Amino acid sequence: KLLYWKENELRVLFLKDESYQPYRKSETRITIPATDEKIKKAVFYGGNNEHIIVLTQKGIFISDLDERGGFFVKKIIEGYVQDFIYSAKNQKLYWSDGRMVYEINI
Fold first, then answer.
1. Burial of 46 (0-12, 13-18, 19+ CB in 10 A)
2. pLDDT of residue 67
3. Contacts (Cβ under 8 Å, ≥6 apart) of 76
4. Which pLDDT does position 36 carry in this prediction?
5. pTM of this prediction?
């Protein structure tokens, strides 16, 4: 999968066929609208890359990639976030507001 974004929408291109639900063929593209907020950063999250962690001007969000029934987007950090790092190894999200570094298990 290839994740990329424009100012206010995420896009995912599937590089190979997927053999689990929701089934997707190679070269399938999906677009996830991210409201009117500018996207600063986005990374895949989870073992099968079926979720995305997104940083906007208003905080950090998680979205799924399953468009059946609409995308499920959940705010996990509210307020100003300068940057974040997700560690898949220890399943922690680290973020900074410019003064301190915080962490949570996800």
1. middle
2. 80
3. 59, 60, 61, 62, 93, 104, 106
4. 74
5. 0.88
